[in-house]
Amino acid sequence: MTEATWGDDAKTPEIDWRMSAALENVPRGGENLAEVTSLEGAVRAWTALDRDHREAAVLTPERPVLIDGASHVSITGDGIAALAERLPSANDEG
Question: CA–CA separation, 23 vs 18, rounded Å?
Fold first, then answer.
C-alpha cells in the first residue's frame, strides 16, 4: 500500500501558465474590453495595473485553477495576487 502525502504542493499543484485566460474590467484604449491571452500574460498584465483597476479586474482562465486547495473558475483581487506570487521567472521555460 502506498502512503499519500499532503503538503503545500497538493494544495496548489503546478499551474498551466500557457492556458488561455481573459482579463476583464480593465481599460483598453478608452474602453473596458476583455483581453484574451495566456494565463501568465493576463496575470503579468494585472500586475501592471493601478490599484483601482486591479480591484475591478476579473480573470477567467480556460480551466479552473487550484490555489491553496480551492478550485477557481473566475479570479479577482487576492486570488490574482496569489497567482502573481507564483508566476514563473523570466528564465523559466514552461
Answer: 14
